Amino acid sequence: LLLLALGLAAAAKSPYQQVLQHSRLRGRQHGPNVCAVQKLIGTNRKYFTNCKQWYQRKICGKSTVISYECCPGYEKVPGEKGCPAALPLSNIYETLGVVGSATTQLYSDRSNLRPEIEGPGSFTIFAPSNEAWASLSAETLDSLVSNVNIELLNALRYHMVDKRVLTDDLKHGTTLNSMYQNLPIHIHHYPNGIVTVNCARLLKADHHATNGVVHVIDKVIATTTNTIQQIIETEDNLETLRAAVAASDLNSLLESEGQYTLLAPTDEAFNKIPRETLNRILGDPEALRDLLNHHILKSAMCAEAIIAGLTMETLEGTTLDVGCSGEELTLNGKPIIANKDILATNGVVHFVNELLIPDSAKTLFELAQESEVSKSTDFFRQAGLSSHLTGSERVTLLAPVNDVFKDGLPVIDSNMRNLLLNHIVKDQLSSKYLYHGQKLQTLGDKELRVFVYRNNLCIENACIAAHDKRGRFGTLFSMDKMLTPPTGSVMDVLKADHRFSTLVAAIQSAGLTENLNRPGTFTVFAPTNEAFRAMPQGELNKLMGNAKELANILKFHVADEILVSGAVNALVRLKSMQGDKLEVSMKNNVIHVNKEPVAESDIMATNGVIYAVNSVLQPQASRPQERGDEPADPALEIFKQASALSKVSQRNPRLAPVYSRLLARMKENVG
């Protein structure tokens, strides 16, 4: 077991090595030790390729071209395919000139670092590429080269560690003590294979030397001694953030050890928010804390590590989509990061020029305005109900989606206002805690029922169409239609609708009135007057004159469970009070029962739901054809088998005993 564990540990590769191995596989057709490299078109940025990037041919949404280069540590041999030869092993100074860091080699010579990295020892140097030195501002470069024995030497020694460190040793979130005053170098090794050193990306890694290892990086790194909190305190354009952090007591967190990413809103970002909204959040400690925690990621994320979109969790418990578009970082798809990769001892800071307000800090009005129920917001506002959507009242808004109002908003009168009040439920709810049969109280003093189905969660006739949005005081449920709260029992509703006068008379004649008035959970497929008129007059007279048969037919139209239309996707079978099954299905957005189209769905009652149908449904036993779901008569089945076997037995004497036994069984059943 120990040997197996050691074998597995040896086989486990770091993310960087896994990506390098994939690049080797893609390049092997060009010869040994050839790696496929993706180059961002129009730039000098190159990446070893992982599987996803290989097929997408994109990095940060931009197209790439594939080139084939020698893998780290190898070189070409004239006349031979690929890169068959290992680079000559020499000291670090000589290696710098071979791996694309000649400028670092030059500055090592000028700063008198050369004797040390040529001599005996075991070192690791994170060597800036030639392009990295060239990208420094003239002022910075001048301050280094004008004082080579102190500034330049110290800068180079900060890029060094006094031991051999390979990429497998560069663990995410660790620090290495540099050779300049033991100041820490911050390492991040991301799952996508990117390795950063103080947020500089490792370009070419693991170049072995006789006295150590050389890793080429894409930036000249600088020492960092400030925490995230100290960066906030010293930056001029973070004044509002500074006050907000102090008010929410987050100072200690941002000073503590750890690895965080702060998406720091600038003063400009705060100024873009309506003053009323900003004052409300700043004056509400819980909302303010949620706002700030929404800007803090749980891990340090350097910009160089983001080569495609990824979802990251915030301290507030929500997620942000962090991505990139070319050279720009994006948050939730928007390029709002103004300044990136400000390194701190406990993480990294990116300045953002837009405030990211989480749902938990928003009013119901703000939640609805930015969603698929924005028309509902206007509707409630026009009805004079805005105070319920903007105040500190704990409520849940059942807001119909915009498609419900594609033909315009209904006229607002007293009845409509009362109906809208019944779309606001007392208490702040979460749909995941709702249960079947639960009763909800509305601001309009109505009681709404919850129905839980296999494929939907419904409140009365309306079903939840999207995930909840939970705000500071209220929760938003997006509903697929306007609610119609029940106004009475099934009998009350039928009596109030002139379309069902014949049905009401039939129910009374059959003695079923009390049944449909009592508390219950009925689904009633109610034949309209038109349905009864469609019956042959003689058949109708016969039915109405036979109370027992009439009751039997009417019970076939009633099921003892509530099924609203939103629960019907595939075929749903309900057991009727008569005993036979009712088959309910959806076809071309029309509900059908026993293949008959429903004229109107979801007429809600306090003890059930009513569907208007323009035909009288017939139980199977009442139909002339044989019922397909009745158990077969055993004697008849045996007779059929016996008849078939009798013919066969005449041709095959071995079957005669079987035939005789079947005849005997038939006689027993008949007897």
TrEMBL record:
Tell me which Gene3D superfamilies the record gives.
FAS1 domain
- Subcellular compartments: Secreted, Extracellular space, Extracellular matrix
One GO CC term of this entry? extracellular space
The answer to keyword Nucleotide-binding applying to this record is no
Protein keywords: Cell adhesion, Disulfide bond, Extracellular matrix, Gamma-carboxyglutamic acid, Phosphoprotein, Repeat, Secreted, Signal
Q: What InterPro entries does UniProt report for this protein, alphabetically?
A: Adhesion/Biosynth-related, EMI_domain, FAS1_dom_sf, FAS1_domain, TGFBI/POSTN
Instruction: Name a Pfam family for this protein.
Output: Fasciclin
Gene Ontology MF terms: cell adhesion molecule binding
**Domain spans labelled EMI:** 31-85
According to its UniProt entry, the protein's GO biological process terms are: cell adhesion; extracellular matrix organization
Q: What is its main location?
A: secreted
Q: Its function?
A: Plays a role in cell adhesion. May play a role in cell-collagen interactions.
Q: What name goes with this protein?
A: Transforming growth factor-beta-induced protein ig-h3
Q: What is the protein's species of origin?
A: Sclerurus mexicanus
The root-end lineage is:
Eukaryota, Metazoa, Chordata, Craniata, Vertebrata
